[in-house]
Amino acid sequence: MTWQQKILRVNLSTGSCEVEPLNMDWAQAYLGSRGLGSKYLYEEMDPAADALSAENKIIFATGPLTGTMASTSGRYTVITKGPLTGAIACSNSGGKFGGELKNAGYDMLIIEGEAASPVYLHIEDDKVEICDAGDIWGKTVWETEDILAARYGDPLMRFAGIGQAGETLCRYACVVNDKHRAAGRSGVGAVMGAKKIKTIAVRGTVGTRPAEKSIYQRINEINARLDDREGMARDGTLAMMDVTNGFGSLPTRNNRSVRFDGADKLNPEAMHTPNANGHTNIVQNGACFGCTIGCGRICKIDPTHWSVKDRPEYQGASGGLEYETAYALGAACGVDDIDAATFAGFICNEYGMDPISLGGSIAAAMELYDIGAIDDKTTGGIKLDFGNAEAMCQIAELAGKGEGFGADVAMGSKRLCEKYGHPDLSMTVKGQEFAAYDGRAMQGMGLAYATSNRGACHLRADPYGHDFETTEIEGKAKIVAETQRFTAFMDATGLCLFPAGCGWGVEDYQELVDLVCESDWNGAERMEETGERIWNLEKLFNLKAGLGKKDDTLPKRILEEPADVGTAKGLVCRLDEMLPEYYEINGWDAEGVPTGETLQRLGLS
Amino acid sequence: MEVSVTLFGGLRHYLPAGSSFNKCKIDIDAGSSLEALLAKVPVPADKPYMVILNDEKVASDQYADVTIQGDDEVVLLPPIKGG
Question: Which of A157, A174, A197, A546 is the most exposed place for a label (fewest CB within 10 A)?
């Protein structure tokens, strides 16, 4: 059995730390991680509560495969109500923290209430204590981890916490673990900040063991099917830069365009090729716990670059540009300087911010500046022109600290654009910034963004293959609906989504779950139904939070302004034509509400 | 004539020895079709890709109808997802 069958519940208001049994009926219905954590959140809190109030809870949930020997088993999910969106937030991360929490003997950590003064949580198996964080409050993620690592002296202790962005309630603050892996989206770090919990330090020696030794061999056989990993290991997700730019679906300058003329300065070739100083951006690839792919980028900024030449603390190797970061801190802002984008990415890791939402918010601010809605007086003298890499980096640091105009940018682009009178310039869904795909060139992605329960997201559905094949919309509603279910199931396992692009099919995830969960998970029907149940539960949370059909939409620019170049030149996203079919496929009514029949079929009524 | 072909992502693995980072030169007869050019690109038949010709995607059922010029820019993109 690879559920530990135990939950650690910490109440910061009362100071209690209790261990309780995992609800196994729920585990059989929602599996783990994103699914099971969402079930607990849905049952335990009022979705209408303020995300930054003590009524909100924040759950760190592993899956039944987290911490096992299955490849990519380092995943965990942070589930809470998102301060950026007002919707359910299920933010997934890799690294080594998730496996360590599981190995300490817990499927899930539920944090509730709020502390009177800053604290951190220290977990070593069954020893759990809430500790004073007075000396680390105000420190960066990196400083915090170094201080506590030295205090406990255990090199295998893992940390998941916030930087100053979380403390100052940046709406897209993230939870950073292992210094540069993050539960990045929807502002989950701000919930920690509001609860005044700085970090979670965990060390586990309990381990995870399948019921029979023979299962080890069978997991190894499935791991060996991950045989198409070389491209991902060499180029990482950054390989997508050339694909979207070539296709014409790379959001550029706040989605004014779908192709960036500086993409060749941010792509894998730029990352691998020495610059004029002989400096190469990438140092090596990196892998999370148990991963046999290694898509992570470990990079160094040219020490002579203006961003770091007088700041040696940023001259070492750290987590570098993934595709999403290169888009948001590159193309979205019109910046083609790979060192500047890498530096802004370091700032995100250090202060604890989602680079997608930061880049999207800066891009929106650049457009506001471009049209004269804000000026030098607003920005504190920063010339916020598209393409100004130094300005982008300045704003990134200010947003991380919540200072100056950075405090406005830290609200996210929706609140920023509303404040300055141009709400249509926010490229968001449910208040969350777009990922690195334009919904006009990729119509299925447009539908996936609009209907994503956590706001605009590229990882809640898998329309990629069909979108790169055709811009016609026939069939896309079905693809989006079905892959939303599969993705929900895959997230609930405790594994990464990327093996699905490196040799595994969804049936390999299902086989692994069947191996370790000691019950009948062998069959597509249960897998799809579990994913559908999770998707509908998240939808129910959002409906109770006050979101509805009006929120299943896209910015005016994507619906009314045709793409300027590339495969989709002249097209807008045909969301209105896809949405009714999508609702019908899901068994929802015309307002996007699950029907009684659907809820009954899924055990949700 | 020689035509420059760029292979992105995992397709780089199939570049002939001596190629630059992601480009190779393919020698074809003047007036050849895109289909004839692709037949000479050393990517295995079981590896899918889409073709961008001079910044525009070409549908796979059009390969035989498109004539290649010497200054054309041909890019092969693998199907990838996520990020």
Answer: A546
